[in-house]
Amino acid sequence: MAKKSKEARIQVILECTEHKTSGMPGTSRYVTTKNKKNTPERLEIRKYNSILKKVTVHKEIK
């Protein structure tokens, strides 16, 4: 089965916003998919940051 040439779903990387400002080493990143037709703007999801040990806002990066 051939893959469609113009897929609506794309893979995106989410990075923690609080981790950058905390000064702690490492990064908290998640990989997920989104439908670029339904959500053309960047994603912002609350996810668990294992380094900070709390739920924080993760934003889509390019």
Protein topology:
Blueprint: E1 9-16, H1 17-22, E2 29-35, E3 44-49, E4 54-61
Antiparallel strand pairs: 1-2, 1-4, 3-4
Short description:
The protein has about 60 residues and is mostly beta strands. About 10% of the residues lie in helices and about 45% in strands.
- From the coordinates shown, what is the CATH architecture? Single Sheet
Helix content: under 10%
**Rg from alpha-carbon coordinates:** 14 Å
Oligomer: single chain
Which strand order do you get reading across the main beta sheet? 2-1-4-3
Q: Give the number of helices.
A: 1
Q: Secondary-structure element sequence?
A: EHEEE
- The fold-level CATH name is Rubrerythrin, domain 2
Which class best fits the helix and strand makeup? mainly beta
Termini separation comes to 29 Å
- Largest sheet descriptor: 4 strands, antiparallel
Strand content: over 45%
Compute the number of strand runs: 4
Q: Which runs of at least 5 residues are low in confidence (pLDDT < 50)?
A: none
Task: Tell me the name of the CATH class.
Answer: Mainly Beta
What is the CATH homologous superfamily assignment? Ribosomal protein L33
Structurally, the number of domains stands at 1
Label the overall shape.
Answer: elongated
Look at the structure and give the mean pLDDT: 89
Describe this structure in words.
By secondary structure, the protein is mainly beta. The chain has one domain (9-61): Single Sheet (Rubrerythrin, domain 2). It is 10% helix and 47% strand. The chain is built from one helix and four strands, in the order βαβββ. Strands 2-1-4-3 form a four-stranded antiparallel beta sheet.
